[in-house]
Fold:
Amino acid sequence: MMRRIAALLLPVVFVLFSAGCAPDDFKDSTHMVTFFAMNTYVTVRPSDVMRDGEAVSPDVMDTLLTECRALVTEIENTLSATLPESDTGRFNRSAEGITDASPLFAELLSRSLTISEATGGAFSPTLQTLTALWNVTGGGYVPTDAQLKEALSHTDPAAVTVTGNAVYKTDAALMVDFGAIGKGYAAERMIEYLRDAGLQAGLVSLGGNVGAFQSPTDLDAFTVGITDPADTSALIGNLALKNGYVSVSGDYERYFEAGGEIYHHIFDPSTGMPADSDLRCAVVIAQDGALADALSTALFVMGEEQALAFYDSGIYDFHAILVTADGRILVTSGIAGAFEQTGGGYELTLHGQ
Ligand code: ADP
Ligand code: MG
Structure:
């Protein structure tokens, strides 16, 4: 029998339902947890059926949900820039780096440095001096030119090297920030865990990051609703997702207002300012959760033209949906069949053959 899987309505990416069931049907489900971690709401929704068709016992379900939560806690305790004893905290305070980083920290930093290079620096894991200065999540502060220049002078990813569990920096003031990749990474780790546990399907969501898997794949696809940047209570459309990760980065997610100006949380690493993008949001769909997260941030920073050129370069395998500030939706052709526009009055164009 086919089971329906669904998740909570979430502020950034709405995850809807595969077979028309209403939110009330699963709101009180015990097969789902939602908790706050990594600065966002995390929802874990494992299928209650195993691959072989057996029902998942309540004990096993409890263990699965507990383990997923423990995974996110471990990732947060390792990567958080605000927890002093995290690897990030220790590395950021150190003068030359740390030699006892956890494999998680070393691996994700290494992946981050590779993506940073591939995106021409649009994604950068070494922006913590800027993130701390602007303090968007803590209420916001508009820095002076001198402060901005000083913070920006300590953000060169080339100052960092990873060798096994040793992570070195040649600039003592440089600090790392996994804000644009950590949640996608956590999605990936939870999905891998649930898949390895032998379930037939699972769905996780962390703020603007969604991960899903299904096996067998003849189940209905999950429906991921994409928020309208111009009206965050509405959707621009739905994306059908069976296996993979969706990540959204937009200027409407976190921001503050000062002197009549809006300052959002995605920085252009070349200026240190909130990226002056001609996009309102960038959605990336990929088979790698950390990559999807990092690339959604990178494409937003790049803007329409560069983002499409980056896509065309074929350096990474991904699909994208870009919403421009002038009211268009660009969908890369490989994902067009999975995206259904539902509202917002945008003009939709396909990119690629
Ligand atoms: P969200 O965290 O809202 O899902 P993103 O994935 O786009 O959004 O990540 C934005 C966060 O990443 C910021 O809050 C900041 O900590 C960090 N950040 C900002 N600009 C960049 C950038 N260009 N490259 C990498 N990280 C960034
Ligand atoms: Mg991101």
Observations:
- Confidence is low (pLDDT under 50) at residues 1-28.
- The chain has seven helices and 18 strands.
- The pocket of adenosine-5'-diphosphate (ligand 1) is lined by residues 123-124, 127, 131, 177, 179-180, 183, 207-208, 249, 253-254, 265-267, 269, 293, 297, 301 (CB under 6 Å).
- The first strand starts at residue 13 and ends at 15.
